[in-house]
Amino acid sequence: MKSSNRLLIQDKYFVPYLSEQQMQQRVQELGQQIATDYADKKPLLLCILNGSFVFAADLARSMDIVCQVSFLKYSSYVKDKSSNTAKDLLGIQGLNEDLINRHLIIVEDIVDTGNTMNQLLKELSSHKPASIEIATCLFKPSALKFNISLKYIGFSIPNDFVIGYGLDYDDYGRHLSGIYIADENQN
Ligand code: 5GP
What we know:
The chain is α/β, with parallel strands linked by helices. It has a single domain (about 1-75, about 85-180), classed as 3-Layer(aba) Sandwich (Rossmann fold), CATH 3.40.50. About 20% of the residues lie in helices and about 35% in strands. The protein contains three helices and ten strands, in the order E-E-H-E-H-E-E-E-H-E-E-E-E. Strands 5-4-3-6-7-8 form a six-stranded mixed β-sheet, sandwiched between helices. It starts with 6 loop residues before the first strand and ends in a 5-residue tail after the last strand. The structure holds guanosine-5'-monophosphate. The site of guanosine-5'-monophosphate has 19 residues, from strand 4, strand 5, strand 6, helix 3 and strand 9.
């Protein structure tokens, strides 16, 4: 990687990790896989704001099937640290869609400890959907602390802080087309 690609976001340096092309190619593959699996099921994509907005937009457009898209808002990170409790900011009660007997696909930006997904799975299950699966753009396997199953994973990555493609640092960096990782050298 060229050092000129190094970015300073607020007080932290980031370097390129996954390019726009890699993201686009992998998300297309995931979308096609989901479209095959859900061909006649009219799934409801539940996209977790804010971080999944780019992934959700690309994923939904790569799925050539009938589906619905809706949004939930949770937050568990403050700057670059997990707060351990996922705050429900725009929850299930605010959804217009009835979840009963629906095939739900949670669309998440990144699964880190798995706490957010664990809480959400429990909450969604009580609404008696036909099925629930998770599609996450990124996954940090070595950070996982909960027993959750991730059916669709874009990329598994190391346990380091990343931004871009919807993910932020202190609310900056979401617009980047690729994924950037915190530079080992912060000087
Ligand atoms: P979990 O509940 O799995 O520990 O954390 C999930 C949430 O933490 C994600 O939806 C995301 O908002 C945030 N998060 C976890 N790891 C990262 C990371 O490396 N970068 C950013 N920007 N957010 C992260």
